[in-house]
Every structure is written in C-alpha cells, then in structure tokens.
Amino acid sequence: MITTASDTVLPLLRKATAELHAKLDNSLPLASAYPSIEDYSQHLLGFKNWLSEIAAFVDRSSFSSSEFSEINTALLKLLERDLQALNVKVTSPAPSNESSIKLNAAYCMGIEYVVKGSALGSAMLYNKAAKMFPAAPIEFMQDSKNNGKHRWKEFIEKLEAHDWTEDDLVSAQQGSVWAFQRYIKLHEMSQEQ
Predict the structure, then answer these.
(1) Structural domains for the chain
(2) Which pLDDT tens digit goes with each residue over 32-57?
(3) Torsion of CA 115, 163, 154, 143, to 10 degrees
(4) CA atoms lying within 13 Å on the CB side of residue 81
(5) What mean pLDDT do residues 93-104 have?
(6) pTM, whole model, 2 decimals?
(7) pLDDT tens digit string along 136-173?
C-alpha cells in the first residue's frame, strides 16, 4: 500500500504524461506567440470536444465520482456558452470506442488528474486571453481561474483518501496517458479537416 499519494502518485502521473503534455501544449491554438480570436475559438472547441468525450467515457463507469461528473457538466455548459457567443458551430467528433479499457477507480483518477490539470492550465491562460481578446466571452476560463485551485485541492484530498496499491498506480498512469492521447488525437483530427 502506498502511504502518501501526493508524494508518490502525482510524480508518477507527471512522469507518465510529461512528453504528451509538452506535445499537446506546443500544438494547441493558443500556443502561438500571437494567437487570433479564431485560435481562441478553436482552443475552446477542442477542449469542449475532448471534455465531452471524457465525460461520456467516465460516466459509463460506476467508478467515477458524481462530483467529477457535475464539474464536467458545468464546464461543458460554460464552454458551449462561450462558443455560442463566438458564433462557433459546435460539432462533436465521433466518440471513441474504448470498450476494451477495464475501468477502475484509479484509472478514473488518472483521467481526472488530466482534466483538473487542464482546467488549471486554462486558469493560467485566462489573463492572456482577457488581454488579447477583451470582447471575447471568457466564462470558461474565468471559472477555471476562480475555481481551479479549489478543485485541484479537492482532487489531491481524493488521492490521499484512496488506498493505493501497485496495480492502482499502473491504472492511474494508464488513465492519465489515455486522456492526453485522446486530446492529442482529437486535436490532430481537427487539424486534418
């Protein structure tokens, strides 16, 4: 059994996803030095499509917490409002067929690690977006700025409360890697269109 999740689990998740995280960060529309309002719109649409898929995937599982589902639903509503205000046609890619994945609580926490971490990243982008696009809707990023740290703290408490085994560590890493891979795949698919 693992004793301190924040000292053991978080470093493993960071290490497992480091290359994928860097690849994604460098390819996102807002990564350019001078992003446009179109880049901002595409960033929100990409995040919305990814989060929609993640939410549908984890909601099929009895291992995902209701709190995680409620946050995903709230974030999706904010994203949809921002996109509607930007006059972006919201289309969703075909959902992934991931029936071969054996979900468990640790796998879902690995996915949640990526979602909550991505929301923290959006909080950091908030100031940049607010300055560059003062007339653009930023409800999603504003919410991430206002609530991201609190949600992250709650997530750490959830990690600490879990009785971790070596198998759980493997599952959590697999979940976090899968979540990043799906984001990257969806982003690449959107670039091909």
Answers:
(1) 5-87+102-192 (1.20.910.10)
(2) 888 899 999 999 999 999 999 998 88
(3) 10
(4) 13
(5) 68
(6) 0.90
(7) 888 998 898 889 889 999 999 988 888 899 999 999 99
